[in-house]
Predict the 3D structure of the following.
Amino acid sequence: MAEIKCVGILTSGGDAPGMNAAIRAVTRSAIYNGFEVKGIYRGYRGLITGEIVQFRTNNVSNIIQQGGTILKTARSKEFMTPEGRVTAHETLLKEKIDALVVIGGDGSLTGARIFAQEFNFPIVGIPGTIDNDLYGTDTTIGYDTALNTIMEAVDKIRDTATSHERLFFIEVMGRDAGFLALNGAIASGAEAAIIPEISTEVDQLEELIKNGFRKSKNSSIVLVAESELTGGAMGMAERVKKEYPEYDVRVTILGHIQRGGSPTAADRILSSRMGAAAIDALLDDQRNVMIGIQDDKIVYIPFSKAIKNQKPINRDLLNTLKILSI
Ligand code: ATP
């Protein structure tokens, strides 16, 4: 295996709070271990256009508490073409970067896997996504912060929901994963969560109504994961208006507020551990793996597993939510 002297680092896909803490950890741990570090701006796009800066320890000073990513992030269509990836490889050769640390979600790690195979290039991935939808890790960078943001937003919405005796559908992110909706519902004391994982098994709206969810309450809050499978909060509200017109229904889509803000302590610690672990992985001759955390221990998950497998939700939580909402 060729010796690694210089490590490149980039953030890709949707930003997530804690990415900066991970950039800091990768940079400092790499320098501590004698590597050179280069920051690649705007994800894979920057790899193609050559937006690259040498990083020293002070490039990552005072960022652990900042949301977003100082490296910026982007979605690059060009990187999805073989020609784009050839250009990206040429940039790496020109910049004398011998290994990459990619912080991003499912799509970013899919791109990393393809690139690593095509050019036999060492890459270590760090799961950075608020969706928590990567297999092989108990949690992902940004998930805890987003969950806390959702909880605080729902607390506020509850005040108005209670005053007006309304049924609120609150849409949260998650693409095709219900982690934010389900755990957000438990954390905020919501009545139910509508999630994609069980959408083909039960009609979740009917279950909700059937369980008499408004019997003893003067307001109801239901968290809905954004997904074609659930129809989102709008889809739910339209159904209620048609099928149960007696309810006064309202919709709130939390949107990008969920991505922002200063990372929680849990996310800062997770990012710091994963960032340092990415450099340990390279020192260990690990290639094309994602850093994961399982039962509080760092693990290496091959890209193929992390991307291809669907991470299951904890179904016990559905029952807990049901019991606690009576
Ligand atoms: P999030 O979970 O927050 O949306 P993500 O990493 O899944 O983050 P994507 O937009 O899916 O975000 O992917 C980010 C980038 O990764 C894409 O813009 C593209 O450059 C690259 N990428 C994704 N899929 C592929 C692929 N099949 N081949 C090559 N590159 C890819």
In short: The domain at 6-141+263-308 is CATH 3.40.50.450 (Rossmann fold).
